[in-house]
Specification:
7 strands, 8 helices, globular, 7-stranded parallel β-sheet, single chain
């Protein structure tokens, strides 16, 4: 197998969560997997642009499908598993991208808001990993990729994201723990940690030239936000045989933010 062939995902069956936004990280990652030859199921808690995205993925040549799923609800995750196995027969690659935000100063944050962020970002990602990890264990093969954040390494400023930061840090340890426990089953578990990205979650701020944008870019050595497509190549690498001896790693894609 040549070096370039190792990056191919031809025949690989993939799932990407949190992919309903029109210009979000989730659909960018799904496009990357499809472009590398993977067949992809995209899912989200709400319909959003799932059907439109699915048609576009099929246009790339992927056997693509979409499904609603609330990752914080184990029964909803079980239904997604049944849907995926019915369509594909197996799952080779799982990208856990779905996340919840709640902006509030720590002293003002409602406990229910805190619990919701924990339920989605930690419990939900564990739900997905355990349910699909059990299927991967049966086959002694699989790649799980979490989407954490530079927010798992350093606290967000000038905004207040106490719950988000805490859970993104938790995903980094969840990555390490699952990688250690499941290595004997041939399952690799890794994590991508994006920095400030020009995605839907920041688009309104970009459009209005919000002070946050200048504050962020001043803290980034490359002096710009990242693009959603700048995450796809790394996802292909971690999903493919090109990274066959890589597990338990979290890789920052942040323009140097955390190097300062």
């Amino acid at each position: 197998m040549s070096y370039m062939e190792r990056f191919s995902l031809k025949g690989k069956k993939c799932i990407v969560t949190g992919a309903a936004s029109p210009n979000g990280i989730g659909i960018a990652l799904a496009r990357a997997l499809a472009d590398a030859g993977g067949d992809v199921i995209i899912c989200d808690i709400a319909q959003g642009h799932l059907e439109t995205h699915t048609e576009k993925l099929r246009g790339i040549g992927s056997d693509a499908h979409c499904c609603l799923c609330d990752i914080s609800d184990r029964e909803s995750v079980n239904r997604l598993r049944d849907f995926a196995l019915g369509k594909f027969g197996c799952v080779d690659v799982l990208i856990n991208n779905a996340a919840a935000f709640q902006g509030a100063a720590a002293e003002d944050m409602e406990l229910e808001d805190w619990k919701r962020v924990i339920d989605v970002n930690l419990t939900g990602n564990f739900n997905m990993s355990q349910v699909f990890g059990r299927e991967m264990i049966k086959r002694k093969s699989g790649s799980i990729i979490f989407i954490s954040s530079k927010s798992g390494y350093t606290y967000d400023v000038p905004q207040c994201h106490i719950g988000y930061n805490t859970t993104k840090a938790g995903l980094i340890m969840l990555t390490k723990g699952l990688a250690v426990e499941w290595a004997r089953y041939g399952i690799r578990v890794n994590c991508i940690a994006p920095g400030n990205i020009a995605a839907d979650s920041n688009q309104a701020r970009i459009d209005e030239n919000h002070p946050y944008i200048e504050a962020w870019t001043n803290m980034i050595p490359m002096r710009r936000l990242g693009g959603i497509d700048e995450l796809g190549n790394l996802a292909i690498y971690l999903a493919s045989e090109a990274s066959s001896y890589v597990t338990g790693e979290t890789i920052l894609v942040d323009g140097g933010y955390c190097a300062v």
